[in-house]
Amino acid sequence: MADTLITNAQILVPGGWQAGDLLIQDGHIAAIGEIPPGTLNVERSTFNAQCTAVLPALVNGHTHLSQTFMRGLAGGRPLLRWLKELIWPLQGAMSEEVLELAALLGLAENIRSGAGTVVDHQKITRPSASLRTGTPAFTEAVFRAAKKSGLRVTIARAWSDRGNGAEAPGAILGELESFFGQETELVKFASGPLTPWRASAETLQKTHALARQFDSFTHIHVSETAEEVEMTRKETGLRPVAWLDSLGILDEHCQIVHAVWVDEDEMALLAERGALVVHCPVSNAVLGSGIAPLKAMLQKGISLRLGTDGPASNDTQDCFENMKTALMLARAFTLDAAVVSPRQALEMATASNGLAVGQPADLCLVNLDSVWSAPVHDLDSALALCVRASDAQALIVDGEWLMKDGKLVSLDEESIIKETQNAVKILRKKAGLDL
Ligand SMILES: [Zn+2]
């Protein structure tokens, strides 16, 4: 692999910004700042990063790629009605070919948003009667798309063993184990129970133990709405986070998505157990679910990341908009303009405190030479408050360019959009929805 040299950059490193160059060798960051001449190979490509910020590639901690085909349809419905009336029928009508296309579109959107890592909560698991395919076909479709994209993707294979669409616990465990065995360097798997109210205690415990065995994790929607908290409380006598803790699941291998309606005791538990919270502020606002207590969670030392959630409830995967919204809502919620500094927002959005020598080369280059960012007084503020997804000009993952000079490298964006327009017309008919 030839070296890549990025010159004239402003580079986000632990503790601040460093002006200079950045050298990538063998997929890793080999040097930052002034590059000693002896370290440079003759065979290299050089990229002038003037007027751009170089930062760790963003992390989209929670999305549903299948929902790229369902943007703009929420129509004022709250979460449970939105699921029953729109999302479940449309997902039920998707073939694996359509799902692969939807995933490619969603991954292309993440690349354009500067995200180098994506966690897809892969929800389509029901067998399709017309195609006589079993459940693995859908996850395999996303797996193919993920491998084509060149991104780091974790596919949290969704499941439920209670209620509508319930699967047999043995089938869930068998499929998960098979996918764990197929992981590549960049594409990984996780267990993705949909919600506490659609999963049995026993299967949660067994899938979590399996995920731990493969150094993976459980990724689950928890306490997105107040109604859901009541459902679990009535059934188990415990609030959802406390219930998961009583099962032994709340640990450093657990990712809690949303956590909008968590009380003080639950937040203390999340911090103590080292569970990660994935905060999805735009989605929570679009569906009228509420505002997560971000200030309190940060104060308690909970590990936090940001997720866009699926495009059906966002309605994009713009990770920069998501970052700004996290900051804005936290301030509006607490009437405190000092809550969530731009640097904290950047750290949540990148799951990192900066680029460092020796790390895998996952980074994005963001244009600051625009009418909405100029003049740049402060790089943190420019990135957290001014920049938009379309300002991400280049993305490198594992040392490979996935986007360069504003053009996608790994995926054919034009043909994905064209195929999408055709496929979605058929899908709407098949779902029988009067939209
Ligand atoms: Zn979600």
Task: Describe the 3D structure.
This protein has 435 residues and is an alpha/beta fold. It folds into 2 domains: 3-56 and 354-413, Roll (Urease, subunit C, domain 1); 58-350, Metal-dependent hydrolases (TIM Barrel). The chain has helices spanning 79-92, 96-112, 136-149, 169-180, 201-213, 226-236, 240-246, 264-273, 281-286, 294-299, 319-334, 342-350, 379-386, 413-431, and strands spanning 3-13, 16-25, 28-33, 44-48, 52-56, 58-63, 115-122, 152-159, 187-193, 218-222, 254-258, 276-279, 303-306, 363-367, 392-397, 400-404, 407-408. The strands form 3 sheets. Strands 1, 2, 3, 4, 5, 14, 15, 16 and 17 form a 9-stranded mixed sheet that branches. The chain has a 4-stranded parallel sheet with strand order 6-7-8-9. A 4-stranded parallel sheet has the order 10-11-12-13. Strand 8 (152-159), helix 4 (169-180) and strand 9 (187-193) form a beta-alpha-beta unit. It is globular. Mean pLDDT is 94; it is low at 128-133. Bound molecules: zinc ion (ZN). Residues 62, 64, 121, 221, 257, 309-310 line the site of zinc ion.
Topology:
Layout: E1 3-13, E2 16-25, E3 28-33, E4 44-48, E5 52-56, E6 58-63, H1 79-92, H2 96-112, E7 115-122, H3 136-149, E8 152-159, H4 169-180, E9 187-193, H5 201-213, E10 218-222, H6 226-236, H7 240-246, E11 254-258, H8 264-273, E12 276-279, H9 281-286, H10 294-299, E13 303-306, H11 319-334, H12 342-350, E14 363-367, H13 379-386, E15 392-397, E16 400-404, E17 407-408, H14 413-431
Parallel strand pairs: 1-4, 1-5, 6-7, 7-8, 8-9, 10-11, 11-12, 12-13
Antiparallel strand pairs: 1-2, 2-3, 5-14, 14-15, 15-16, 16-17
Bound molecules: zinc ion.
The site of zinc ion has 7 residues, from loops.
